[in-house]
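A further point concerns the way the authors explain their paired sequence and structure data. Showing the layout once, in full, would remove most of the difficulty. For illustration, here is how one protein appears when written out as sequence plus structure tokens:
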Amino acid sequence: MKSLFARAAAVALVGIPLAAAGTAFAQDTDSRAIANRLDRIEREISDLQRQAYSGGSSGAPVVMDSGAGAANLQARIVELEEQVRDLTGRLEEANHRAETLQRNLDAFREDVDLRFRDLGAGGGAAPVSPDAGNAQASTAPAEGTLGQTGPADGSSASSGDGGAAAAALSLLPNGTPETQYDFAIDLMKRGQYDRARSAFEEFLQLHPKHELAGNAQYWLGETYYAQNDYKRAGDAFLTGYTTYASSSKAPDSLLKLGMSLAALDNKDAACTVWGELGSKFPQASPSVVARAKLERQKAGC
């Protein structure tokens, strides 16, 4: 009877990944919707910028009929760029949540397979509650996270005021690097650029080798770029490209490095950077390639 109950519990666990899979499907649908909206906005930006900057048959810039019309066009471009930044953050957040959910699904499947193997061997062990693993994990401080209950070597946490001061200055929440990264992205989405900057800097101090470090470095640059601090933005984007060359954000970092240089009236250097982007990342995303081409036209490269 006990063995039958154990088998039933193990089978019931299979339903958990299935329910989670439904959530994953919904998140994937949301990601596609965000990506489609992002593409539409970027196409609109490209169209508007072509109206403002593209030349006629003689190559001369198009002259707007009124200063008000040009101002309205530029304001619309700025508004759309803000939407692109927000949607990009939301898309990344959705993708990381989907990846986390997939890892959880894989862990569930492995756990269920292990239990079936144990039952098949005649062990008949009592099933473990699905929440037991989470409860056990929550009682132990996560490695490398802030706010842990005490030092790893067992020494007293009150041995000095340095640890308390560091905890007081901490901005990121306790949790996994993914959780902390999502927290920083959320601040960016809310337009809290100063706090987002501090969060990304803290993330990079805690997790300099994490797979999301390159993304964090890119968004650190965006916090400066959004506030028109193009010098610091350029420094951050350059670090993103040189330090995290294998990151998926490396092409974006080069694009924005060039835009930062152009904003600082260093167009020759900007053109060189965009040329590097084309040669180093020929398979960059279409939106990055299109934006780089447009910026090169604007700068007269």
The radius of gyration is 25 Å.
